[in-house]
Amino acid sequence: MTDFDYGPIEFYAIAFDGDRPGPAVLKAVDDLVASGTVMNLLDLVFARRSPEGEVEVLEMSDTIENDAHPALDLAGLAGEDDILALVDDLEPGRSAAILVVELLWAKAFASRLFEAGGAVIAREGVPAPIVNAFLAEYAD
C-alpha cells in the first residue's frame, strides 16, 4: 500500500473588509483543524490591498494579536506568485487570508487512486453560497 506523507492540498483566499481579518476567522480555521478530520493547515498568509491598489503581504505576527499563531506544517508553501494570483480580484481597502490546507479526508483516497494507476486530472469546486442558492431556488 502506498502511503503519502500529505494528501491533496488546496489554496483558499478569503476576503474581508478592512485591512486585516478579525479573530473569528482564525477561530473558524482552528475549529476545523482541531477536529482532525477535515483539514490540516499547512500555511497561512495575509494580504491587503491599499486604497491605491497596491498589494502588501503581511506576516502572521503583524496581524494576529497575543502571539496566538496557529501551528503550520509547511509555512512558506504559499509563494509570492501564488498569493498575488489569489488576491488578483481583491478590491482596494480589503484584506484576505490565504490558507493552504491539506485535505485529510482525501489522503487515503489519493493513495488508493495512485495504487490503482489512477489520478485526478481535473477538479472543479462550487462555492457553498452558490450551491445553497441553487437548491433554495429549485427545491421541490
From TrEMBL:
It holds the Pfam family DUF6325. This is DUF6325 family protein.
